[in-house]
Design goal:
- With 87 residues, the chain is mainly α.
- It contains five helices and no strands.
- The chain is globular, with a radius of gyration of 13 Å.
Length: 87
């Protein structure tokens, strides 16, 4: 039987986009967390899709990454597919 693909949740899309944007800027989790005013552990959980992040923290990360917040919620920003959600 063919397995149907499940789309990543908005939380997972956001986390993956943050991770990819951070890596493209070649900055560490620690540096991004500092710039956004949060702990590295919290940022790691956000990037992994394990944390239900507030809009205020989402905005802080978008600002630190110099991106508009809606872009970080765009599933097509980095062509996310379900294979990318496997940690």
């Amino acid at each position: 039987m063919k397995k149907t693909k499940t789309l990543p949740s908005a939380r997972e899309i956001f986390g993956l986009n943050v991770r990819r944007a951070r890596r493209l800027k070649e900055i560490s989790q620690e540096e991004l967390a500092f710039q956004a005013g949060m702990s590295r552990t919290y940022l790691s959980q956000v990037e992994g899709g394990a944390r239900n992040i507030s809009v205020d923290h989402m905005e802080a990360l978008a600002n630190a990454l110099e991106l508009e917040l809606p872009r970080l919620l765009d599933a097509n920003l980095f062509s996310i597919d379900t294979a990318d959600t496997d940690q």
